[in-house]
Write a structure and sequence with these properties.
The chain has 819 residues and is of the alpha+beta class. The protein has 23 helices and 21 strands.
Length: 819
Amino acid sequence: MLNETLRDVSFAVRSLRKAPAFAVIAILTLALGVGANTAIFSVINSVLLRPLPYRDADRLVFIWNTSGGPARVPLSPARFLDFRDRLGAVSIAAGICQFGVVLTGGGPAEQIDASSVSSSFFDVLGARPLLGDVFHARTAADRAVVLSYGLWVRRFGSDPGIVGRDIAINGARRQVVGVMRQDFGWPGVTGGSTGGSSPELWIPGAARDIPRTPKDDPAEDLGADRNLGILRIVARLRDGVTVEQARREADVLAARLAEEYPDSDRARGAAIVPLREQFFGPVTRPLGVLLGAVGFVLAIACANVASLLLGRGTSRRREIAVRLALGATRARIVRQLLTEAVVLSLAGSVAGLWLASWAARALIGLTPGSVLRLSDTHTDPVVLTFTLAIAIATGLGFGALPAWQVSRSSPNQDLHDGGARGSAGAQGRRARSVLVAAEIAVALVLLVGAVLFLRSFSALSAVDTGLDTAHLLTFSVTAPGGRTATAAEQRAFYEQLLQAIESLPGVTRAGAAVTLPIGGDDFSTRYTVEGAPLPLPGQEPSSGWQIVSPQYFDAIGMRMVSGRGFRAGDTADAPPTVVVNQSLARQVWPGAEAVGRRLRLGRDPQDPWMTVVGVVSDVRHRGPAAPPRQEIYQPLSQRSFGSMAFVVRTGVDPYSTVPLIRNEIARLAPSLPMAHVATMEEHVARALSRPRFMSVLTAVFGGLAVALALVGIYGVMAASVSQRTREIAIRIALGARTFEVVAMIAREAGTLAIAGVVVGVLAAWAASRVLAGLLFGVSAGDPSTYVDSPCALLIVALAAGAIPALRAARIDGAQVLRS
């Protein structure tokens, strides 16, 4: 058997070498299909299939607050302690607080992303370090810090002696106790997904082992505050406990806490989310859609190669007939033909692997957001096995029909006329026609999906975000002094920096806010309105919350609808003031003037009433796809914050002002870094990265599918004209006119195209249901898409069939009959 197989492979190679044009076309066609599939699979393998670097990762879950809807929000430290100590479904839990810190020592000052975590964090994950040790439950020293592998390599040159050394974080000395392994990945986590940058170092919580922000007082008991939603919770389920059991127990505990703390927890529920769903939920469906799309492309490529093999089989009928006459069995002939198909497929797959390595790099560049392990995408044994499997499967798949056709041929007839005529040739033409109609149907499915995504992206790009993004530079700065800085010192630093920036050449306006709209963090607050009925505890209305400088609205391109913005007189000693947006004003005071009304944050009677001095236009803070929400703005002069995001309006290239701004920061605070430098246009582009990713890739795959389908219909029509040359010559000799010959061939092409389009429309309608949650501003059943796409495909398919038809019209009937 082995010897026969080797002889079959040797014969297949020699046979393909005798037909180089056929071999090159088939190999390139297969390389496109296999390469696209391998590229997508390599990303899926890296992101979704490889085991996570945590012990028993399927036992890990996240715990979130809910407020009567699907949105997941962080827990307060007090609520974290309740769930950690009273939820019997979990054996151990840890809190996580994300923030930026300033790292000094070992190089220039640098702002990096960090996490304060419970000392049990690494025990929950079962993670072990590359160097030194990690925190352990309730034993970590307050000064300890664990570095990520990337930070250790980038900042400290992979120094093996880093363990035990002190580094400065926000001006405070901390001792490095460990360095994590290279495969330990932990993304930035938000309620909806992974998001933002991954932390590069971890510090332990203190004072009852609660993670803390840089501005918290270490002696403060955060466990007393049930409304400070800053903690993400990761927990390990007890052995034998399922996720559903944990969810039921969490619901019971949330209801009990609502009874115990009605003022704060009445409207709060709990959500238990498995770790994989938390990390990969947002990308699982898009990657699955893309894998299906490239599977369709491979199917079209296989249909094209099968069509080529059918045509080649017609020309080899005399050869096959001779072999049968000399004693070869039909089974032996079929095996030989299948071997040739598999050899062809393997050659295409080798070329596809090269294309896949390039395509995977392009995919990584296009993939939106911070996706865990995406950058580690590479060709490993699993990817090679996948490629080998689809090579063999596709080879057998597209080789089966031609082999079956040849096995049914009549040796006597083939020896008599070489297979140029007869029923066998007609059967081959019919088989190729069916394949081409199927190609057109599959191509239409991809084309409809591509058009839907392109229209969705176009609608999203056209959304008015409420901002003027042109010539707008953004960056963030953390006030010097860390926890030791007073609110007055923070305000003074920011005011001095804003004045210095506005005096720079090329700068027209400058402002600052706690968070940037579109791509920034998201803070919210509950509020009560003076004169309105007091809502039940926990049911107060909620809005976004910001602290901004007086020039912020003007700098970022927001307009005052009524009243005024903040001004120099709104000092810490003046009556508290706020600015609200149009959405809040319309909702709270419909048909009335909001300016002069008062509200307070929360419901505590000790908190001051704040006067609304202005109403500002809406912005889409959470991105173009999210509608404007209510927003409350407080002045920086009355309430400070440890880190601020700056917006600088320029009359020149925004990046040309960066060195000047950096010099001003260094003048005011020599060791303070300028972090997260980008233009607002880049922020908006990042918010559109996921729809752009889907629209670009589906357009590429849809275009590739259409091109392959057109090649298929051209090939079938060209082969039909070639095989029917004698028939066409006779028709011309008997008086057929040119347009009649063209119409005859074009009618065949039109029949195939119409059949494929009809089937494709039905298939696309069924398949588009999968896209429903991935589109914006267009429905999965958009009527214009189901009219425009089939019409466009039908026109180009007819154009592809017209070329062989015109060639048929130029046949010299008399010369053909004489020959």
